Amino acid sequence: MHALIALIAILCADVKASDALLDDPGFRAVREFADIMLQSGRDDYGPKKSPLFAAQLNVKTRRIPEGTEQDPGVWNTHFEVAGHQPYCQNLIADLGLLDLLQALTRATGDTKYEQARKDYLAYVLKQTRDPRSGYIPWGEHVGYDIVHDAVHVGEKKYWHEVKAYNVPWDQLWEADADATRHEIETAFHNHLCDEASFAFNRHATMDGKLNTGTEPCSLLSSAGLYMDAWSWLYKKTGERQFLDWAEKMRAMAAARRMPETGLIPTDESIRKEKMVYAEAVSYAPYLFIAADILGGEGAAFRQEGLDYLLAYDKHAFVPQRDDGQGPGYYDAINTRTGEPLQMDNKRYLEAWQWTDNHAHVIAVLAGMAAGYAYTGDERLLPLVDRALSAAAIPGNIAKGTVMLSADAGGAIMSLVHVAKRSGDRKYLDAVRPLVGYVLEHNRANGCFISGKAGSEDYYCGRAGSGYLAAAVLAFALAEHGRMDLVPPLRDIEGGLRF
Length: 498
Known about the structure:
Helix content is 47%, strand content 7%. It is mainly alpha-helical.
């Protein structure tokens, strides 16, 4: 009898907790947003209707932007982001939205969200790949035109370039194993410029031609993504070749590391001794992901990631900026001497305001947080705390600083995962004001918007609208004791950059 009473009490407590979650303002906001996306955000344009989500929506009309002066959308005609134009769909920008849908089904039991995720991925992999190469049309420069039902490439840049995300390869494999393997095995390998060194160019033409003989520009945000994909495919198939590729990619990057500082330059061609995107801290999470995938075979990846984070903190962190703005990080560093550099008249990283071609403190916070979340190494918690202090969340909220949704999502998701690993609710307390701030400022007419100044009327996948929604959901789940349902870290560099 006592056992029965105890069981009833537990079940009642679970029901109350579930009711409280469903009534949480953040949870209600993201569920409303997901329902809007299912109803108005999918492809009913052009000759073929599909379960794809549009890259952008005008939140007033809930239609894709017209690309006119009156209804331009976000980054309309910007040649760098041809794959994210108002009439496109782009898988890389939808990863947060897909996680949101999966988590909502798990939290509510309503299968419509999970079914939408599955239908989307199946269509992407079976219907949108380039007919010449079989490549997925995703990344910065290539997308899928949902109006004309065709792969869309830019006029100035027409390259396959994927970077900066923790891709859910298991979800893609479930949708289409052959297409997923082709992307990892063929598309990524074709980026190599030199088979011996594994130097590569992050750009490759969509027609499937090899990059052999092309000048390398081995940006680490792509190197890490390839390395993780090959690690994943090795564990999935047991084929040693893919582990060898992952090891060679790690070795290629490690060979550029400066012994004097432990730092790594941005690339091997243009900026040989300059770190301009905080690479040492933003590359480390890819190493931790590979280590997590590889288990006992990933020890070297893990150690290298830890070394990068510690080296970055040593050389980039400033306890007190000389402009009186508190702690911070140098914007760029000479990787041989460790001395700060000034790029575009910037000495320090912005706290959390996005600018072209510059990282910001949220990227540092995301890297440190990912390191701790994946490893539990206690040396990293003080580094997380430093980055959190430098992000100056209360001060920026007080000033009404505009925050891109990708950056906000990166900050929120990162701190939720630190709280999950550490069990310390102070990280939830630290990010709670930011959650309230974005629910007020990065949301309109039921949709999460871009957060980009001048583009307040638009949902935009690339600007992080979907990832911010997933992060707000993660916070709500954490607040109500459902850490088991928190979505994964996806945008592992903390937000958007060109």
